[in-house]
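Lecture notes, part 5. Sequence design as translation. It can be helpful to think of inverse folding as translation between two languages: the language of shapes and the language of residues. The source text, in structure tokens, appears below.
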């Protein structure tokens, strides 16, 4: 009983030590086809074994996407990915976002320009606040669509 609690506590301490602002990484897609329209990708990364907060982040992210961006997902303007970082077929994408465990990222592709925002810290800060999580993630995705 103590070991899962200690593991959870260590994960919380790790994410509290992350910088207070979300990471913005700009990169150019090399070798990728140019996209005529802007596409916003939302990535939720996880490992094989997950704690309660990690599963809650996945559920809140999925609920946000299905509630607020269903039409955009159907048209392909917004793409939602759930990826296990321990599966071989996901290694390249996980490496691109430096995801080794639970992580939440928004990647905006506009032509050959890409901008990635790491929302992992946001996700853990709001893991016990469903309304704050849904509203905050909705705002981040909407902002990415409108920028």
């Amino acid at each position: 009983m103590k070991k899962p609690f200690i593991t959870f506590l260590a994960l919380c301490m790790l994410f509290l030590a992350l910088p207070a602002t979300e990471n913005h990484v700009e990169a150019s897609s090399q070798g990728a086809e140019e996209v005529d329209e802007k596409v916003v990708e939302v990535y939720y990364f996880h490992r094989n074994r997950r704690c309660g907060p990690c599963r809650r982040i996945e559920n809140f992210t999925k609920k946000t996407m299905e509630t607020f961006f269903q039409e955009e997902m159907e048209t392909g303007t917004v793409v939602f990915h759930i990826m296990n970082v321990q599966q071989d077929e996901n290694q390249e994408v996980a490496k691109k976002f430096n995801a080794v465990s639970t992580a939440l990222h928004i990647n905006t592709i506009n032509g050959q320009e890409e901008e990635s925002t790491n929302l992992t810290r946001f996700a853990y800060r709001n893991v016990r606040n469903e309304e704050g999580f849904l509203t905050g993630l909705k705002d981040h995705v909407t902002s990415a669509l409108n920028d």
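The translated text above is only one of many valid answers, since several sequences can fold into similar shapes. Confidence is low (pLDDT under 50) at residues 9-35.
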